């Protein structure tokens, strides 16, 4: 159907006073406008329609348990924005990082635990953190650790998901999530923060992109002292300077060095059921493990443990012996896969 046909339908149902058919035709026109990339036009129509429905609902009693079609749409958009609402059991012991990183995080926790005292002294509390660095080095994990240590709930927002789909409602929905998180004293975790920079590359509405960046700047600037925002990116260079400046802490979570690889092995083998087939494991695997992320190293070690278990001779003394050569092979595979990606 063309736009003219939609408008003809609208006029017909409007004059016939058929509200249901009118709304449904309008909804079709909105979809059509979105498909034909007339984003602003679609947004304006959508907001007119929603306002009308809201006014209608406010006039009569609310129908509990049977939300109208349009309020369902609104909720769905919010749900797309929030990937999860989580609580976390992670603590500092789960995170391996350099001394300086751990120290910054520990001070951050201390500040929040003593925020009343600091506020009384008119000292502001840091509440905006950006984690950056290569994939699989603990950005998400560190956010979970902060939530776990502070015993706060966390809204996980994936900007990547929003930016590639419904740009239109994003500003409004972000404001909504921020409001909700403040009321509930939760942390807001914005993953793939670099997507904001990427919007420029998409065939999208530039005005809308600017609006989202401005919304975020405003939300950051007026953030309540008790609220916490954590953002994560593995492409810090994509992020606008105005946005970068807003963060109190910018913490790099980097690839593990030799000492950290050793700590990771101990963490994975913590329960003591596994031993290696040789003493100096590190010197054997280091060449292959160098330059790989915590995640890749962990994944290949767990793979090696499982393969070693399947080896039938491997159940003496209730202890499983990990074959270092298998691990080395899996590390090599991991490196090759990374090169391909
Ligand atoms: N610093 C670390 N200390 C201990 N374990 C880690 C660390 N970094 C990563 N891991 C392990 O790897 C998994 C994946 O890491 P995480 O999801 O935090 O990476 P990320 O930096 O957020 O990566 P991405 O950029 O791909 O989102 C973690 O759940 C954990 O098991
Ligand atoms: Mg992550």
Main features:
16 helices, Rossmann fold, binds magnesium ion, two-stranded parallel sheet, 6-stranded mixed sheet, 8 strands, alpha/beta, 3 domains, 341 residues
Brief summary of the model shown:
This protein is of the alpha/beta class and 341 residues long. It has helices at 3-15, 19-35, 39-59, 69-81, 99-113, 115-120, 139-150, 159-164, 170-183, 195-198, 206-221, 241-245, 258-268, 281-289, 294-310, 324-340, and strands spanning 82-86, 128-132, 154-158, 187-191, 228-233, 249-252, 274-276, 320-322. Strands 1-3-4-5-2-6 form a six-stranded mixed beta sheet, with helices on both faces.
Descriptive notes:
The protein is an alpha/beta fold and 341 residues long. It has three domains: 3-66, no CATH class; 83-252, 3-Layer(aba) Sandwich (Rossmann fold), CATH 3.40.50.300; 258-340. Helices cover 57% and strands 11% of the residues. It has 16 helices and eight strands. It has helices at residues 3-15, 19-35, 39-59, 69-81, 99-113, 115-120, 139-150, 159-164, 170-183, 195-198, 206-221, 241-245, 258-268, 281-289, 294-310, 324-340, and strands at 82-86, 128-132, 154-158, 187-191, 228-233, 249-252, 274-276, 320-322. It has a six-stranded mixed sheet with strand order 1-3-4-5-2-6, sandwiched between helices. Strands 7-8 form a two-stranded parallel ribbon. Helix 2 runs antiparallel to helix 3 (39-59), helix 9 (170-183) packs parallel to helix 11 and helix 14 packs parallel to helix 16 (324-340). The two termini are 42 Å apart. Residues 60-74 and 199-203 have low confidence and may be disordered. The site of magnesium ion has 4 residues, from helix 7.
